Amino acid sequence: MIDPFGRTVDYLRVSVTDRCDFRCVYCMAENMTFLPKKDLLTLEELDRLCSGFIDKGVKKLRLTGGEPLVRKNIMELVRSLSRHLDSGALEELTLTTNGSQLSRFSSELIDCGVKRINVSIDTLDHDKFAKITRWGHLSKVMEGLEAARNAGLAIKINAVALKEVNEFEIEEMMRWAHGEGFDLTLIETMPLGEIDEDRTDQYLPLSLVKKRLEENFTLTDIPYKTGGPARYVEVEQTGGRLGFITPLTHNFCESCNRVRITCTGTLYMCLGQDDAADLRQPLRNSEGNDLLYKAIDEAIGRKPKGHDFIIERQGQAPSVGRHMSMTGG
Ligand code: SAM
Ligand code: SF4
Fold it and tell me: What percent of the chain has pLDDT over 90?
């Protein structure tokens, strides 16, 4: 799949549920209205949809959410998709998780050919963690990380940089992650969906974080790529890798290789734009895949050049009305 700007689209992110067992302050409001279960694609439909994309050239597939591991029977989907790893059609099957269910699922994930996962942790302080996630427990996530490591999964930690919340903890988090053998990627908050707080209060530019780290560490740019938008540096003093995802301070759209589908089968061609294509109807209207392929081709044909995120003042609507939990980041 090649878009109008000549970019090859070979990475699909699939939000398998909009529900979550956490309520992170930058991601969701505390009282969220979730989709009625009947609107969700079934696991079989998700499998068919993903397989259609793999037929069309997707090489990397990431399950996300909401929290992907709280979707009922999710491992049935993972196991079924792993056939594309066995056949060589798919190069990587992975997921982004909050880690709360990893104690339960890590060995099965490895068994299904998942090799590495992203786990989101914004702080190492138990009280702060409870405040950020509203409903989460850091100890449970730490147990999950241990289980994942013991099972043999490679782990990357994702942390959203939050002004005054984890702003002065980033050095400690980096030392911890690298000490454990995990990569760490920092993410700028993006203006997606109504939340209960003011985003200008949360926004911490990573250019500033990097500058502060450089006072104590030697950061060397490296060409390392995981198929995502992070730019990596190697940290001489820890020997670890640190990634920066900077949608606001440094736009990376020129190398965008991905599209996203929601758990209702809506395809978003850009995380930062509202244009979308419904794939549920073409999926349901025919047993064959011709209608689906046609809808995918039409959608890729109008993938936009990029996003135009800005962090607004209080009272203004977010750049994009939907929450990150719909498209999974
Ligand atoms: N629940 C899983 C998790 O937390 O990893 C997967 C879904 S979550 C929406 C995916 C990633 O998006 C997480 O790393 C989360 O921190 C990040 N995220 C959520 N809302 C965000 C926002 N408004 N700006 C930047 N990152 C956000
Ligand atoms: Fe849930 Fe992930 Fe959003 Fe936190 S960031 S509320 S864990 S979906």
Answer: 76
Question: Residue 242: what residue type?
Answer: L
CA 20 – ligand 2 centroid, Å: 6
- Whether the full predicted model's pTM is greater than 0.70, yes or no, is yes
The per-residue pLDDT for range 182-235, each reduced to its tens digit, is 999 999 888 777 777 777 778 899 999 999 999 999 999 999 987 778 899 999
Ligand 2 within 6 A of CB of 27: yes
> Can you read off the two tokens belonging to residue 25?
């302050």
Is 15's C-beta closer than 6 angstroms to any atom of ligand 1? Answer: no
Ranges of each domain in the chain: 11-327
Domain 11-327 has CATH 3.20.20.70: yes
Q: How close is the Cα of 192 to the center of ligand 2, in Å?
A: 13
> How far apart are the C-alpha atoms of 323 and 318, rounded to whole Å?
10
Task: For ligand 1, say whether the CB of 100 is within 6 Å of any of its atoms.
Answer: no
φ, ψ (nearest 5 deg) of residue 166: -115, 10
Q: Is 24 in the pocket of ligand 2 (CB under 6 A)?
A: yes
